[in-house]
TrEMBL record:
Protein name: 7-carboxy-7-deazaguanine synthase
Statement: the UniProt record of this protein carries the keyword S-adenosyl-L-methionine: yes
Domain Radical SAM core, chain residue ranges per copy: 18-210
Pathway field: Purine metabolism; 7-cyano-7-deazaguanine biosynthesis
Record lineage: Bacteria, Pseudomonadati, Pseudomonadota, Alphaproteobacteria, Sphingomonadales
Length: 210
């Protein structure tokens, strides 16, 4: 199959357990919880997304004919050095496109593969790191993984239920909107009240990275 990629770039992972780690981000086009059009946001399941995942016209993006072509682009973005190669498959919703061929091609190129997903589709079983960010109002089927990242505050979400899911790390991340300062305070209180959770900040934004 071909792959529709909005953008592909080298950066530092800005969020979660791997924050600060060198990574190639592959942002797939398309999502099943919002069309990406502002006209549809008010009626979408996920209404607070801050990411442009529409089309394939971003930096490094395009329509890749097959898995080897996309893996080659990831290799090129990483550059020299074969140690600790790390790529993050994100979106949009990456599990709309991630398949056996792509996972095999990236592993053959020496990459550890992480995914950031809304969890409404099963994660590929051979991914190396699974991060799920549940969205209130959606049916999350992927309830196991390495990292659960809850954007907060989020009306309708159920942290008590999430604590019963099988994740090694539970993180809460302040919603980045017009009330950002209040959201940081709310997320901080959340962690102080719930010792199983850790605070995740979007450090890439603080550093001026994507």
């Amino acid at each position: 199959m071909s792959y529709a990629v909005k953008e592909l770039f080298l950066t530092l992972q800005g969020e979660g357990v791997h924050a600060g780690r060198r990574a190639v981000f592959v942002r797939f086009a398309g999502c099943n919880l919002w069309s990406g059009r502002e006209a549809d946001r008010a009626h979408a399941i996920c209404r607070f997304c801050d990411t442009d995942f529409v089309g394939v016209d971003g930096d490094g993006g395009g329509r890749f004919a097959d898995a080897p072509a996309l893996a080659h682009a990831v290799e090129a973005a990483w550059g020299a050095g074969g140690e600790r190669r790390f790529c993050v498959l994100t979106g949009g919703e990456p599990m709309l496109q991630v398949d056996d061929a792509l996972v095999d091609a990236l592993h053959a190129s020496g990459f550890e593969i992480a995914i950031e997903s809304n969890g409404t589709l099963p994660a590929h079983p051979r991914l190396d790191w699974v991060c799920i960010s549940p969205k209130a109002g959606s049916e999350v089927v992927q309830r196991t993984g390495d990292e659960l990242k809850l954007v907060w505050p989020q009306a309708g979400s159920d942290p008590d239920a999430y604590e019963g899911w099988d994740f090694a790390h539970l993180l809460v991340q302040p919603l980045d909107d017009a009330d950002a300062d209040a959201n940081v305070a709310a997320a901080t209180r959340f962690v102080l009240e719930r010792p199983r959770w850790r605070l995740s900040l979007q450090t890439h934004k603080l550093l001026g990275l994507r």
